[in-house]
Write a structure and sequence with these properties.
By secondary structure, the chain is α/β, with parallel strands linked by helices. It folds into two domains: 9-38; 48-246, ABC-type transport auxiliary lipoprotein component (Rossmann fold, 3-Layer(aba) Sandwich), CATH 3.40.50.10610. It has six helices and ten strands, in the order αββββαβααβββββαα. Strands 1, 2, 3, 4, 5, 6, 9 and 10 form an eight-stranded mixed beta sheet that branches. It has a two-stranded antiparallel sheet with strand order 7-8. It is globular, with a radius of gyration of 26 Å.
């Protein structure tokens, strides 16, 4: 009769073989990781030093952004970029958000006069993509960096502030082009549609903040711009209430 309390010789060989295979696999993985060397850091994801995600705002910043110094900032007018099948933008959408950006960025950076930016922008070739246009604006105005972007959604509230038939909804994207490295070092996307309290109890803080009112699209946009500018300051290493010129690189 076979004694199950002790493994047979064949079973022992199988156990040893399994252990050897396990060790071999571990060594192979270790060697693979070591052989990757510095080249592994050259993947696109390795360039990202900061990824931020909140309920309404998401952003990415490249590793080199802490070495970027922005004293003179050119802000290009945002453009409409409604996705296929999306609602048309409410009148004045791009101008409203652009003005919010100018106002909220003015306390941190010295801004290139809007007239100079507009003059440089109209000189760009028709049909040029936004990044190429931003590069030309940066060269023409002598800016350290150019902030540009697009508005994908700007739907106005339908109805009264306490009894809306349709909530306001806003989405826009921003990018920062560093003129020294000639690369986009930061991008952010804001997207928000006001939700009623009955949809989700976790909307209570927002519900109380708005005093139970249905807000306008301009109010959503203003909040989104504030979040984006603060995130950009943080990504550049600028502490609260610290002017950009005095920030550590």
């Amino acid at each position: 009769m076979m004694n199950f309390a002790e493994p047979t010789e064949g079973a022992g060989n199988r156990v040893n073989l399994a252990a050897a295979l396990t060790i071999a696999c571990a060594l192979a993985l270790l060697l693979s990781a070591c052989s990757a060397g510095p080249g592994a850091a050259s993947s696109p994801d390795a360039k990202i030093v900061e990824q931020f995600q909140s309920k309404d705002l998401s952003s990415h910043a490249v590793r080199s952004i802490r070495q970027v110094t922005v004293n003179n900032l050119a802000i290009m007018p945002l453009v409409a970029a409604v996705p296929f099948g999306g609602d048309p933008l409410a009148p004045g959408a791009t101008d409203t958000i652009t003005e919010d950006i100018y106002r909220q960025a003015s306390g941190t950076w010295k801004l290139v006069p809007q007239g100079a930016v507009m003059h440089a922008a109209v000189q760009t070739q028709s049909g040029a993509n936004l990044e190429d246009a931003a590069m030309k604006v940066g060269h023409a105005t002598g800016a350290d960096a150019v902030l540009f972007g697009s508005v994908e959604r700007y739907v106005e509230r339908v109805g009264a502030e306490y009894a809306a038939d349709k909530p306001a909804s806003v989405a826009f994207s921003l990018k920062l082009l560093d003129m020294k490295s000639k690369q986009v070092v930061w991008n952010a996307k804001f997207s928000k549609t006001q939700q009623p309290l009955g949809t989700n109890f976790f909307n209570l803080p927002s519900f109380l903040e708005n005093k139970g009112q249905w807000v306008l699209a301009s109010e959503l946009a203003n909040d989104g711009v504030g979040q984006a500018i603060e995130n950009l300051r943080s990504s550049l290493g600028i502490s609260p209430n610290q002017p950009a010129a005095a920030a550590e690189p």
